[in-house]
């Protein structure tokens, strides 16, 4: 990396670039992983400088005042068995972190190879392909690290990798005439951490007042759990992260995933009532 | 503080921002608990006024709430993103007040009016970070350190910094780069 790029990186981190320079630099970041890693390190150094200042606590009551300004649009979530959030908010983070930690695609590829030879070994990651009339499952033996973050990075990489390279999805779908009439998708799920990703593509546009809901079914325990609304906003595709709470009744390594279209905005339902759009509740 | 711990915190904060982006007020509270103290301290350093800093922090968190859905981790770490919002808010206030950005130094807080703000009991982790930063700063040449301090805490543009230090713009850019790289090199070595 040349001096000029390093200088631009420093000015970017210090927020000293003009809007045009900033925009052009950010375009370059999209394709230059080495540059992104350098930026993360420089940002970390700046953050340490700021945390090095004498620390003063903000006045008591300030949060209430802030809350009163944002309250009309906020909702206090007291019981949240899942979170379902758009991966776009931190897409690419997994890859950058993986490079820093020295884990990455190599590990993923190794795991996928192992799945061909030792299908019953544990622990596993679950990959579920979904289309408009069925699901396909594949368990992938994996290496669990003591560091939960490394496990998370591995899962994120897998989810991102299938998004970029859908042809590598190991759960092969059928190709019936109905298969992709209402979109397609996949889920990647780690039964140990209960973290997962759901990816959807080409879903029909939501009608006013309707929402797509993600469901998980544990056939072994015969329990069903609603993961909540997939926050599609104006899009018909996306990659979303979800996380089950530790006491979730979903406990098996093999879980069915499916998406329904419901005529409600309630964040959590006990049973699906609407139309099945993607996947199946059967394994 | 190890790299892994830093990354875990950053990832958790990216998750919080994503949740805030879909209207989760409890995630907003959690992020406030994590960021309010360092951002308020940064504001005090820049504005040197309690009520101005309080208002700047309030504006900053309202902006965080409104813009969390647009946070993009490819562009910056979550805390850096929040710091940028706070710094820009403070700079706007400095300019609205028609105050010249001040040439500040890292002097102790005593004798400052704003030092009456409640000082947070420093944790072991904070002390550790602080020692590391102080050690790292010792390796940064004085001119570079000065340029870096002005860039971070004065609200000056790099052209203003160049004028203030009576140096060509190119020299100041080079000092900023060298100072920041030196800091990053030392801190990375310490973390490893």
Description of the molecule:
The complex is a heterodimer of chains A (283) and B (192). Chain A is of the alpha+beta class and 283 residues long. Chain A has two domains: 1-72, Arc Repressor Mutant, subunit A, CATH 1.10.10; 84-279, no CATH class. Helices cover 31% and strands 23% of the residues of chain A. Chain A has seven helices and ten strands. Chain A has helices at residues 3-13, 19-29, 33-51, 62-70, 93-101, 105-117, 148-164; strands spanning 84-86, 124-130, 135-141, 184-190, 195-201, 211-218, 223-229, 238-243, 256-262, 275-279. Chain A has a six-stranded antiparallel β-sheet, with helices on one face. Chain A has a four-stranded antiparallel β-sheet with strand order 7-6-9-10, with no helix packed on it. In chain A, strand 6 (211-218) and strand 7 (223-229) form a beta hairpin. In chain A, helix 1 (3-13) crosses helix 3 and helix 5 crosses helix 7 (148-164). The longest helix of chain A has 19 residues, at 33-51. Chain A is globular. Chain A starts with a helix and ends with a strand. Mean pLDDT of chain A is 77; it is low at 76-84 and 98-121. With 192 residues, chain B is an all-alpha fold. Chain B folds into two domains: 1-120, RNA polymerase sigma factor, region 2, helix turn helix motif (Rna Polymerase Sigma Factor, Chain: A, Orthogonal Bundle); 124-192, Winged helix-like DNA-binding domain superfamily/Winged helix DNA-binding domain (Arc Repressor Mutant, subunit A), CATH 1.10.10.10. Chain B contains eight helices and no strands. In chain B, helix 2 packs antiparallel against helix 3 and helix 2 (25-47) crosses helix 4 (78-96). The longest helix of chain B has 23 residues, at 25-47. Chain B is globular. In chain B, 45% of the residues are buried.
